[in-house]
Amino acid sequence: MNVFGVDIGGSGIKGAPVDVTRGELTEERFKVLTPHPATPDAVADCVRQVVEHFGRPSGTVGATFPGVVVGGTTRTAANVDKAWVGWDAAWLLGEQLGVPVTVVNDADAAGLAEMTHGVGRGRKGTVIMLTFGTGIGSAVFSDGKLVPNTELGHLELQGHDAETRASTRAKEEEGLKWHHWARRVERYLAHVEMLFSPELFIIGGGVSRKAHKFLPLIEGVSAEIVPAGLENNAGIVGAAMAAAAAAGAAVPVSAA
């Protein structure tokens, strides 16, 4: 079963059709830059461009959003325009595309994909997926069940919002070497571990492709730490899975 998934991020908006039963993109993803300012109308237009790159949509579409999403409405907007707060994002994107749209938190979508098709498959206990990019997204699972909208990137760490210090954007803006950035990630993981005592950390986002450059440098964390198996496609896959589930399709979702 193919469903279209879109991953809306603070720096880019990407999407592709997804085989939701296998957790794989069926075509190479297409990406556009996130507009600035990233207002609802501007982002919705970019989402339309991404989807229509593959032709007019004929079925349901799933989309992620970098913030808290409840019932399709966006409650926070850390890395996009504040005008998103309180928007019915599912309605807005549905109007733009002309088909039903399911909107979920970006890290929650990535986590669902990893727990169903990636490195979290079959894992029990507490598993935390963290996506490092413009900010830090989080998805927390207890015995395979999702605790939605945790937003652990906004924990206070040494007097700062954690994602302003340990995100990929912070690394790039400050010109940090891998070993310097790894120390910040290490402190952040240790803080999250102290609060939740997970058995497994899954590290996602674009930086997961370069996990060998920083994960071996992280010390003092008891939990197992692994890069995302679906790498930066996890959000697209998870968005499509959420849309398929919302449409009543029988798709494997480990963390329903």
From TrEMBL:
<dbReference type="GO" id="GO:0047330">
    <property type="term" value="F:polyphosphate-glucose phosphotransferase activity"/>
</dbReference>
<protein>
    <submittedName>
        <fullName>Polyphosphate--glucose phosphotransferase</fullName>
        <ecNumber>2.7.1.63</ecNumber>
    </submittedName>
</protein>
<keyword id="KW-0808">Transferase</keyword>
<dbReference type="Pfam" id="PF00480">
    <property type="entry name" value="ROK"/>
</dbReference>
<dbReference type="InterPro" id="IPR043129">
    <property type="entry name" value="ATPase_NBD"/>
</dbReference>
<comment type="similarity">
    <text>Belongs to the ROK (NagC/XylR) family.</text>
</comment>
<dbReference type="InterPro" id="IPR000600">
    <property type="entry name" value="ROK"/>
</dbReference>
